[in-house]
Design goal:
With 251 residues, the chain is mostly helical. The chain has helices at residues 2-33, 38-60, 64-77, 86-89, 92-102, 111-136, 151-167, 172-175, 177-191, 197-217, and strands at residues 232-238, 243-249. The protein has one domain (2-249): Up-down Bundle (Vanadium-containing Chloroperoxidase, domain 1). It is globular and about 55 Å long.
Length: 251
Amino acid sequence: MEIKRKHIYSLFATRCMLFLFSVLFAHTSNLLAQNDTLLQKRMLRNTLASSALIAVGSSLSGSTIEYNLKTNLRNAVGNEFEFEIENQLQYAPIVELYLADILGVKARNHWFDQTKYLLLANASTAAITHLLKSLINKERPNGFSYSFPSGHTSFSFTNAAVLHKEFQTTAPWFSYSGYLFSTTTGTMRMVNNKHWFSDVLVGAGIALLVTEIIYYYEPLKNFNPFLKSQNITLLPQINEWSYGIYFSHQF
């Protein structure tokens, strides 16, 4: 009885989230429609795509479709299968971002601005993701709590979206490569029985939406103390257990 009650509450919470998000998206679309600049049209298109992921994911949460998908995946790989490569893959787009900077690939922004927007996007995405996890408390396929949405997926797609924003005009093929790693990350979360299909879809949608908003409004746009400093390098150091900063200054 307790499990059934928790399942009903989870479904109700996800449907409420879908309704509230639909209202928010309709309001945003109306505001953007008042102007028809290329930048606003692009944002509207990208917002629609990320909204679709959130809407479809929320609708599928707790459905027979995602339960059958989970069952088929586990039957295909075996119930004892566990290969958590996604713990490393989620960081791949960040490595690509700064490796491209080191190799001199032209980007949209200075490395400090890249770092600034990367941190802002990840902080915002993480806050939304963990808030929803706490409010909805959906049970994972393996029986543990806090399944919806997927944190690994939202983190990885945020990193991939930042990579794409930075290099989409100067190195378009390279800019999309991060999505290969983020998609694999989300897929492996399902294969390893850690998340449902809806968790992954909503996690990806939140990440893409937040990053789109960050790059549209560009908060702290004029804050860059290193813009004229060619001999200073400051890069984030991120792994599964800790966060840090690498600093280098050439005299």
